[in-house]
Write a structure and sequence with these properties.
Elements: E1 3-10, H1 14-25, E2 30-34, E3 47-48, H2 50-58, H3 64-67, E4 71-72, E5 75-80, E6 83-88, E7 93-94, H4 97-111, E8 114-117, E9 121-127, E10 130-135, E11 138-147, E12 161-162, E13 168-174, E14 184-190, E15 193-199, E16 205-211, H5 213-219, H6 222-233, E17 247-251, E18 254-255, E19 260-261, E20 264-266, H7 280-301, H8 306-318, H9 324-333, H10 336-348, H11 354-360
Parallel strand pairs: 1-2, 1-11, 2-8, 5-14, 11-20
Antiparallel strand pairs: 3-7, 4-7, 5-6, 9-10, 10-11, 12-18, 13-16, 13-17, 14-15, 15-16, 19-20
Helix pairs in contact: 1-4, 1-7, 2-7, 5-6, 7-8
């Protein structure tokens, strides 16, 4: 007999796990599925900004990052063409995805969700009462499906279009020198991309980057590209950066055909992506997870086609509008001259960054 659930959440990253927590707490039969096993490594800057932290608070998980040893962040150090400028942050923490993702999956279990990892998931047929899904050797049924499968996700076939000139993501973790202190997001910017570096809870240095693909090929690989950007920016040298164990991503900037359809909703990176700057990607994912829960609950109780439109409008309000600042920042970061001018301006007048910082850290409605 097939296992029957109210909601199947596919993808156990932060978006999927938080959605599963909220839906299971509401008394629904929830299954959380992922092809990975946890803990797992992810390409990510590991930063949680004000929006991310307030979304966790709204989900009843506000104490989780601190209980896991997250490192408080109080400033960003921008570097371009040998010059640096410091921007103060009102709030933020750094926490590795290995630790955070595994903890959120455990929270889903505690909330009462069924969790199955290490299984490949495929969406099957849609019937009058919901979907069939294959999860490894099993067949499941769910009234509603939440697609949280990320950049690589093809679950709901939303046909994402990749933006022309989109950069690729890259990341690694290294034992960096003391010249990169805790509590600071170090941002190295250059013509071929940018590199962010931050201390995580175990003392290592998380390195996350976005590069032009042509620049990576010309430089001789992800590590060599990162080494060049850091060196040209003026940040302290990292001798072993080029030889570190790097992991890449598909093109980052993309737009899906839809974020919802009949008895399914997409959240997180499965809804499209914009190059982040200081933790915005995680913030958008967590905010979407909190926002989708009430819509999904109504859809389970009594599905109508209006629910797809409701989620599209809600997602636009909660996530898409907030991405506009990062779109502008991403364009600015592509110009070495403009980056250098911004750094020079911030050196003289740091208050110029206040509106941007305030916008990126605007709390989630209901958060704190």
């Amino acid at each position: 007999m097939n296992d029957v659930f109210d909601i199947a959440v596919v993808g156990a990253g932060p978006a999927g796990s938080v959605a599963a927590v909220l839906l299971a707490r509401a008394g629904r039969r929830v299954v959380l599925l992922d092809m990975a096993t946890f803990p797992r490594r992810k390409v990510c800057g590991c930063c949680l900004n004000g929006l991310a932290l307030s979304a966790l608070t709204a989900a009843g998980l506000g104490d989780l990052p601190h209980s896991l040893g997250a490192i408080p962040l109080d400033r960003v150090k921008l570097a371009a063409n040998g010059r640096t400028a410091t921007v103060r942050l009102p709030v933020g923490v750094a926490l590795s995805r290995e630790v955070m993702d595994a903890a959120l999956v455990n929270e889903a279990v505690r909330a009462g969700a069924t969790v199955r990892t290490g299984v490949k998931v495929k969406l099957g047929d849609l019937g009058p009462d919901g979907w069939t899904l294959s999860a490894g050797d099993e067949t499941l049924r769910a009234t509603v499906v939440i697609d949280a499968t990320g950049l690589n996700g093809q679950l709901t076939s939303t046909d994402s279009s990749v933006s022309v000139g989109s950069r690729i993501g890259a990341g690694t973790v290294i034992d960096g020198p003391a010249s990169y202190p805790s509590g600071v997001i170090h941002m190295a910017t250059g013509g071929g991309g940018y590199v962010g570096l931050v201390r995580i809870e175990d003392g290592r240095l998380d390195v996350a980057a976005a590069f032009d693909p042509v620049f990576v090929r010309t430089a001789g690989g992800l590590g060599h590209a990162a080494e060049q950007v850091v060196k040209r920016s003026g940040l302290p040298s990292l001798p072993k950066l080029a030889d570190a164990d790097w992991k890449g991503t598909p093109p980052l900037t993309r737009t899906p055909r839809a974020v919802a359809g009949r008895r399914w909703f997409a959240i997180g990176d499965a809804t499209g992506y914009v190059e982040p700057f200081t933790g915005e990607g995680m913030a958008w994912a967590l905010a979407a997870a909190v926002a989708v829960a009430p819509v999904a609950l109504r859809a389970v109780d009594h599905w109508t086609e209006r629910h797809a439109g409701e989620w599209a409008a809600t997602h636009g309000r909660v996530v898409t509008r907030r991405q506009s600042v990062c779109r502008v920042a991403a364009r600015a970061l592509r110009s070495p001259g403009l980056c250098a001018a911004v750094v020079r301006g911030l050196t003289v007048l740091p208050a110029l960054a206040v509106p941007v910082v305030r916008s990126l850290n605007q709390p989630f409605p209901g958060g704190s």
